[in-house]
Amino acid sequence: MSLLLRNGVLIDGAGRDGRRGDVLIVGEGIAEVGLFRPPEDVQVIDCTGLVVSPGFIDVHSHSDLQVLEDRREKVRQGVTTEVVGNCGFSPYPAPADPRPLRAFANGIFCGDESWGWTSAKAYLDAAARSPVVNVASLVGHGSLRIAVAGHRLGPLTARELDRLEGLLEEALVEGACGFSTGLMYAPGSSAPAEELERLCRIVARHEKIYATHMRSYASGLLAALDEQLELARRTGCRLQLSHFQAAARANWHLQRPALDRIEQAEREGLDVAFDCYPYVAGSTVLTQILPQWALEGGPEALLARLADRDERARIERQTEAAFEWRWTDIYISAVGSPRNQSAVGRNLAELADERGRKPVEVITDLLAEERGQVNIIAFNQSEENLRETLTHPLSMVASDGFYVRGRPHPRLYGTFPLWLGTFVRERRWLSLPEAIAKITWRPAERFGLRQRGRLEPGYLADLTVFDPQTVAGPASYDEPERPPVGIRYVIRNGKIQWSASQAPA
């Protein structure tokens, strides 16, 4: 049976003003939009007072495993498509023994010891059966290196580089939408520029996207950005800067010079853009704070170093010397064992006072006690800088959300309704059509998601219907799992995936 969305405010995803009208869905596609005579045998949804837009696209997600499950956190926000495989982490290609890949990625994936796909095709075939969202996947540089050289740091041999290139080529041919790096995560952090250049030439040849978590967003922001822009110039690859920001209070002034560089590169003809999330805090694994040499060999090698008094002292000295935040800016969000559950939701300064330890010692204590599995929330940005990135013409809005065994970042539950409610309706940082373009058509075009992201006949029927007067993301750092409000219907491939009537009373 066909489906008619009647009398809504239609916002097409291209940034144009809304117009009142109807949308007819036949099968998986959009058949008609605007004013027309509908067929008689049709299911009708009254959208009076509601906005009908393309389904939201989360271009920076870490739900690589959860998209295969019936998880509703994203679809309840209006998300119909997720781009996974970001920051160098993809669940493929798994080596014959997948344990090193799991050890590398489980802190981001919230995974166990049961997953791993040998190829992009194997993963994408599984993802195509996702019960909730459409899935596009980047192949991760870190995962490629694990497959080739395990947790070893440093330059690869000529034979290993050939193998790395072959695996990347294979993944792109099999359907990966692009390539991602995580240059603050070992082992990818140890890759020299020459290695990245060889890989990005392959990406450019396939006309796909290169998304990068750069080597630094703090005091090294400008140097890290220059490296990536030069990489794009030399290879011709399409460059996507992941979760762009200037992190830590002392570095906030670097954001404007960084944006100047990006804008100049775009004027010169580079295909460059960035994504950002509508929160001043981010989230990652605690090991990212450590000197990267401490992670060589994987989690077991780190634990051995932490058990050695001299090595542990060396790690602590270098961690403290390089630390650019205030200790009160870093909160523990998840630990694996019951022993340290009381640390969840507390910052490093509080824990240090309570335990009679230095903050850096709290870091190594927790990592040793939790066998390296600790997640954090880090308060990185200023409101002024956040406004500059969210409203920038080269930006698109994403969640960067991932699951944890503890207290997640609220972006996992609230990103897109928060964007439309707090920043668009209340603060008026951007018009509603422009705000919707940043989460629909622009991401679809950027990541090569064909027939998605537009409210037009001939496009696939991924649609979100919401109340512009009430849409909101009330999830907070203290209550991160509060569900969004104002999302009335989410339709994926022509089928109703979520309706407000499904929400618990």
Fold and architecture overview:
- The structure is a single chain.
- This protein is an alpha/beta fold and 505 residues long.
- It is built from 15 helices and 19 strands.
- Strands 1, 2, 3, 4, 5, 17, 18 and 19 form an 8-stranded mixed sheet that branches.
- Helix 4 (158-173) packs parallel to helix 5 (193-205) and helix 5 (193-205) crosses helix 6 (221-235).
- It starts with a strand and ends in a 6-residue tail after the last strand.
- The model has no long low-confidence stretch (mean pLDDT 97).
Low-confidence stretches: none
Global outline: globular
Helix tally equals 15
User: How much is the average pLDDT?
Assistant: 97
Q: Report the count of strand segments.
A: 19
The first-to-last residue Cα distance is 29 Å
Largest sheet, strands/sense/barrel: 8 strands, mixed
Q: What is the gyration radius calculated from CA atoms?
A: 22 Å
The share of residues in helices is 25-40%
What structural class do helix, strand and pairing data support? alpha/beta
**Percentage of β-strand residues:** 15-25%
